[in-house]
Predict the 3D structure of the following.
Amino acid sequence: MKKGKRISDAVIRRLPKYYRYLGDLISSDINRISSSELSKLTGFTASQIRQDLNNFGGFGQQGYGYDTKRLHVEIGKILGLDKKYKVIIVGAGNIGQAIANYAGFYEEGFEVLALFDKNPKLIGLKIRDIEIKDVDDLAAFIKRNEVEFGVICTPKETSQDMADILTENGIKALWNFAPLDIKVPEHVSIEDVRLNESLYTLTYYYSRNNENTEE
Amino acid sequence: MKKGKRISDAVIRRLPKYYRYLGDLISSDINRISSSELSKLTGFTASQIRQDLNNFGGFGQQGYGYDTKRLHVEIGKILGLDKKYKVIIVGAGNIGQAIANYAGFYEEGFEVLALFDKNPKLIGLKIRDIEIKDVDDLAAFIKRNEVEFGVICTPKETSQDMADILTENGIKALWNFAPLDIKVPEHVSIEDVRLNESLYTLTYYYSRNNENTEE
DNA sequence: TAGATTGTTAATCGATTAACAATC
DNA sequence: TAGATTGTTAATCGATTAACAATC
């Protein structure tokens, strides 16, 4: 990729959508697409799509468009999806289990080594062959297995403590489902999934759409 | 609120964060806060916070700041959280169950009337006193109960069909967890929770942070 | 070659930040 | 009153869109 230019978060967050549609196109045996066709699929403008992609290199060809397979591979590389990741999930409630169960997670190279919980009723159970372990063994397990990715699915109250244990033992990326802003050291990447905030945004637009029709 | 001004999506998506921190402050018996203190909590600039709030009215007081309780109530109203909503969840897998189980959902006025699934093993079971019903009864149930909100937790393949049934029977807001862009009629509000896209953004930043240290 | 479509620069638009008068 | 902090206008910054030359 080009040196020196800072790429904005807005651009990065559009890449996974390109990646997904390109995957769909490949599944449909379509091996070529123009920025204007991709615009119709994604809802982004053709100009924006070309701008976005050219942050990382010239993947297209004048007069032709983009090769879907090549572009899918390239965006995958940019997003880091060409590598395998060792993952643990902390909190084996519904959300933790949902993630452990999600097949797409494996297909993109995320290998869930274990779930952790403090509930004795859950410890020892298996989700998709993945054992639920005692949260007391967390630190040792991370070090021993050189785990890189952690998913936080614990309640709000304990999530920061769990995150601290994870980062202190070498985890470098956290995917957080607890409804709070987790603090991490500078070298650790974090992505907060803000379900509450997503829901409240929906109620806002719903209320706005229906404010004249309510009795 | 002020008439005529179009409020950007970026502003709306910051409101839930204010709302959350204000709730925390109230729980800590703090009843006053300035934009600069709120800035430290949220990470947004004080100027931006004042701008955001003034889109909806002058909730503060010069020389004093904002009354946490009042601001919490006002933002709640803006987001539509002062009302109750009748909700159904389609798909009673892990994610559907997680949402049905999430207590915060009820506290903010979301009443889950039922879950729906096509799996006979799940039909008839209860999650937190909420029955899992046969997806065949979906249309009739929505009409009979005047359900307003639908949560889509079905697999990618069936999600658009489910969404169509919901909107055809009068549901006006969809919270979608399936990894695709669901199409809805204009008058329906939709919020897609894009977990894949969130995860891939994390891998991007993780890869970027660690690209020099990898062997 | 002619047509199509990219890559890229320039123009526009909108969002964020800064500044400060108003006022509690 | 003096100090603090909002509400709001103006300035800046960044992101999106438009335009078109390059080129396959």
Q: What stands out?
A: The domain at 85-197 of chain B is CATH 3.40.50.720 (Rossmann fold).
